[in-house]
Amino acid sequence: MPLLENETVVTIPSIKEKKKVKEKIVMVTAYDYPSAKIADEAGVDIILVGDSLGMAVQGNEDTLSVSLDEIIYHTKIVSRGVKRAIVVSDMPFLSYHISLSESIKNCGRCIKEGKAKAVKIEGAQKRCDLIKTLVENDIPVMGHLGLTPQSIYKFGGYKVQGKDEIGREKLIDDALQLQDAGVFSIVLECIPLEVAKEITDKVSVPTIGIGAGPFCDGQVLVFHDLLGISEKPYPKFVKAYKNLREEIFDGISMFAKEVRDGTFPSDGNSYHYSKKKAKRK
Questions:
Q1: In a shared domain, residues 171 and 264
Q2: For residue 73, what are the domain limits?
Q3: What is the pLDDT of residues 173-201, one digit of tens each?
Q4: 263 shares its domain with 232
Q5: HEC assignment per residue over the chain
Q6: How many domains does the structure of the chain reveal?
Q7: Is 189 designated active site?
Q8: The pTM is what?
Q9: How does pLDDT run across 38-70, given as a tens digit for each residue?
């Protein structure tokens, strides 16, 4: 679908501007062409190709097994479906933890091969030098603080972060470090809403929350979660706006029933042989 007259392509500067004018940012995590196309046409600002594909699509227990090549592949097919939103590649585990040169090369592959407009990197402090270098080399970076899924073994599971004073101070300090390193936005995942508000008020770049309350500059949910495709139970921060899992189940069940009882395909779903001879040229 072509862009409408009043639609404009979302850019990194326009995302930053949304914070200044207090316009909320909408981000959806998607992994394939049809999902991305629907999300883009629905008007989301950012489409994240998340390493959560390891869980949402591949059926794994965590995100750690997702490879760089898989992220690039999914970014490439997502990018084909997007005309206006920014596509961001989520850098997977161990793709940016190695040498600086190798990390830059890996991030660059997501831009060159995947056609992403930016990359997302978890953590602060140890990542700030890399982020500065990426930004200096024209690769926009989205930060990610709080519950960073690639660190679940260090955290001891999927746990809310920043619940005490030490954790709160660290999150605020990390957010300021990411801002100074040059990120264009920061995802805040599973942190108390009061801490998320404090961070949002202190930093000059937009914050995008997931399980971080209503005071962030934007919100993100996974495509499969917000449409009710994923299996329940959902995390507390998820709101399913549809129940497509049930509808899909019903549709496939009806198809199976009609195949077995012979009502599909009907005459209307079939082609007929014609005895009419084709005209010779």
A1: no
A2: 12-241
A3: 999 999 999 999 999 999 999 999 999 99
A4: no
A5: CCCCCCCCCCCHHHHHHHHHCCCCEEEEECCCHHHHHHHHHCCCCEEEECCCHHHHCCCCCCCCCCCHHHHHHHHHHHHHCCCCCEEEEECCCCCCCCCHHHHHHHHHHHHHCCCCCEEEEECCHHHHHHHHHHHHCCCCEEEEEECCHHHHHHHCCCCCCCCCHHHHHHHHHHHHHHHHHCCCEEEEECCCHHHHHHHHHHCCCCEEEECCCCCCCEEEEEHHHHCCCCCCCCCCCCCCCCCHHHHHHHHHHHHHHHHHHCCCCCHHHCCCCCCCCCCCC
A6: 2
A7: yes
A8: 0.92
A9: 999 999 999 999 999 999 999 999 999 999 999
